[in-house]
Amino acid sequence: MILPAEKSSGATQKQQTARSGAPAGTLGWLAATYFADVEFKALPAVSQSTRRGIIEACLREPLKPNSSDKMAMVPIILLAPQHLRMLRDRKVDKPGAANNRLKYMSSMLSWAVERNLIRSNPARDVKPLRYATDGFHTWTPDEVKQFEAHFPVGTKARLALALMLYTGARRGDVVTFGRQHLRDGVIRFVPLKTRRKKMHAIEIPVAPDLAKIIAATPTGDLTFLMTEWGKPFTSNGFGNWFRDKCNEAGLPQCSAHGLRKAGATIAAERGATDRQLMAMFGWESARQATTYTAAADRKRLAADAARLVAGEQKEDMDCLTKVSHPKTA
What we know:
Blueprint: H1 10-20, H2 27-36, H3 38-41, H4 45-59, H5 81-89, H6 95-114, H7 141-150, H8 156-167, H9 171-174, E1 182-183, E2 186-189, E3 202-205, H10 208-216, H11 235-248, H12 256-269, H13 274-281, H14 286-324
Antiparallel strand pairs: 1-2, 2-3
């Protein structure tokens, strides 16, 4: 099943077969080989967990409804676009999850092509589902105020909110923040998500309000945010904890993810440029920044147009009043 250009040793094949429970040359075997590779292990722990979970769910899918034949047993030389299309369409009611299946399976298959394990990536011939979504709910200013009113300065929840809102950092980075990241009024960190590609640090001036909240809140030594057991949060653990705090504040629609979007929205509406947003949020491409600045521009233009319309209506009413009630000489 393996291409002659680069055969694995017998020992390696046996090891991966034992790990996957699938014969060498099958999709299940390929996944086990991928998970054991140094490239996969170099991914952040959260990314590894997400990819593994989605790929393993794909491997458990039956080839046909109620069939005992699973995707894990498909020989990789017989893997075709229709297999990937089937995996995608089994999640058609959740298009985001459907596209994630396609995305992570494609990443694994591209890895296999680079190692001469397969000749081509059949996922490249399957299009993602198109659907309209804004993703996670973006906090409104009123929702931020509601959260702040429920959790006063000095509470861990208020500190968590401030760290995310004032730095624009993802939850996976916020849980690592500690006093060692602060120097000369600046918080400096390398985003976990891009650490494999580049080591460029983001430097964010610490806003006076954030500095006051940090000073007024009990924190850990190396991480500001600690669990109730005195341990640093994991990214997922923090996300779940913060969602509970949102529920306590009467904001079940809000999450840590949406707070990052809120920060970008607020900054754009206050006049931040694409370049400024890229610097703060660690975006390499202007495309993400433009999403926020364009939306802010549309909002300002709509407001200006509404004022113009209101002004014209007033002028028309003034003219009608003059016609209906002409001044007497």
